[in-house]
Specification:
With about 425 residues, the chain is mainly alpha-helical. It has three domains: about 90 residues, Fumarase/aspartase (N-terminal domain) (Fumarase C, Chain B, domain 1), CATH 1.10.275.10; about 190 residues, Fumarase/aspartase (Central domain) (Fumarase C, Chain A, domain 2, Up-down Bundle); about 70 residues, no CATH class. It has 15 helices and six strands. The longest helix has about 35 residues.
Length: about 425
């Protein structure tokens, strides 16, 4: 059954090509379509396009259908094009002609928009919770290991002293930047498009503020054309936020892969979190982190795919916009799994407590030594040249102690300030 069908037979090849995987992804969006339909029915009753009794009957049946979408018994057989046609069929099957009234004053265009935006709002909140859970683990590890030194690198060469407190909390604070973008995606999705119909409104005297309030949107997208123009833009902005979070997780996963290696030996994980080799019994491979790195790198490419998909489209609806649906839903799924596995794994990390005794890390302390000379009156450039000469001559003897006190440094990372910054964004 097609909502647009006028009695002509359907070409099966065209149907299979145009529907694609829409039924599969609509199973994810169906609860939100039911919720939006409830708000729409209530509004139709409020403005007199339905009686109050009709509106209540529709709402009660939509609640029942929504429950099936949540418990996994809702299906979209191949005879239905999408969740919209399936839900309307179930309403009509149960309520007769009343079920056919639900589509008054709306289109599938604003139906899918509002379902997507409700989905994005909820999924972004779930991502923020998962991001905060990882943030908390990183901050706890940072505070626990704040006095454990490790080498810092530039150009992949030993550079200056760092600490595990600095390293763990650096990624925690980077996650705050990612929450900023998640908040932006949420704000963009938090504008009710319902009532824009096919993109040009309707001649029915509907109440868009009523559906906005009932669905919990903070505002509505006032201009009906602008509402439809949000399709593609909202998905792209959301995947940009996901991709930015992916960039942070990918870099962290790369560090973990390096630092687990025998040449570094900074951190270790229980054997249950690693995999082995079919021929090398000594191997403990960081497969979890390599997959996180790969998945998150792919997620960073999604905004580019969506840009190519939607570039140069004129205003109004175009069928290829449905292709954004799967990219978005899969992106949320992948990102949540990456966050979950990182949090699970990092909670079990073991830190090497005595790294810097090795002579290959001696030069880490050259800058601190020449800084002491500067504190005692030597011009910095002269101190720099003197240190270079001592290193070349093999005379440098490191004093493996650090005394960094400024805010954000090894001895004063700013844990409280970092936690406060995250709390402000989450609030």
């Amino acid at each position: 059954m097609k909502l647009w069908q006028k009695g002509n037979p359907i070409n099966e090849k065209v149907d299979a090509f145009t529907v694609g995987k829409d039924r599969e992804y609509d199973l994810v969006l169906a609860p939100y379509d039911c919720e939006a339909s409830m708000a729409h029915a209530a509004m139709l009753g409020k403005v007199g396009l339905l009686t109050n009794e009709e509106a209540e009957k529709l709402i009660e049946e939509l609640k029942a259908i929504k429950q099936t979408t949540l418990d996994g018994t809702f299906t979209i057989p191949d005879s239905f094009e999408d969740m919209h046609s399936r839900i309307e069929f179930l309403l009509t099957e149960k309520l007769g002609a009343l079920g056919k009234k639900i589509h008054t004053a709306r289109s599938r265009n604003d139906q899918v928009l509002v379902a997507l935006q409700l989905y994005i709002k909820e999924e972004v909140q779930q991502l923020k919770k998962a991001t905060f859970a990882l943030f908390e683990i990183l901050m706890d590890l940072a505070e626990k290991n704040k006095n454990v030194l490790m080498p810092g690198y530039t150009h992949m060469q030993v550079a200056m002293p760092s600490s595990f407190g600095l390293w763990f909390s650096a990624y925690a604070e980077s996650l705050i930047d990612d929450v900023v973008l998640l908040n932006a995606a949420h704000t963009l999705a938090d504008q009710n498009p319902l009532g824009s119909a096919a993109g040009y409104g309707t001649s029915f005297a509907i109440d868009r503020e009523a559906t906005t309030d009932r669905l919990g949107f903070s505002t509505l997208k006032y201009n009906v054309v602008a509402a439809q123009m949000g399709r593609g833009k909202i998905e792209k902005t959301t995947t940009q936020a996901i991709g930015q979070l992916g960039a942070t997780l990918s870099k962290l996963a790369m560090d973990v892969c390096l630092y687990m290696g025998q040449d570094f030996d900074f951190i270790r994980f229980p054997e249950s979190l690693t995999t082995g080799s079919s021929i090398m019994p000594h191997k403990k491979n960081p497969d979890i982190f390599e997959l996180i790195r790969g998945k998150c790198n792919l997620l960073q490419g999604l905004p580019h795919q969506l840009t190519l998909l939607t570039s140069n489209l004129p205003s109004g609806y175009h069928r290829e916009m449905q292709l954004a649906k799967g990219l978005l839903i899969d992106a949320f799924h992948e990102m949540k799994s990456c966050l979950e596995m990182l949090a699970y794994s990092l909670a079990q990390v073991e830190v090497n407590q005595d790294l810097l005794h090795h002579s290959k890390y001696d030069y880490l302390f050259s800058v601190d030594t020449l800084n002491e000379w500067v504190k005692n009156g030597m011009p910095f450039r002269e101190a720099y040249q003197k240190m270079g000469q001592e290193i070349t001559a093999g005379n440098f003897k490191p004093e493996k102690k650090v005394n960094h006190t400024h805010l954000g440094s090894i001895g004063n990372v700013g844990f409280e300030e970092i936690r406060s910054k995250m709390k402000t964004l989450l609030d």
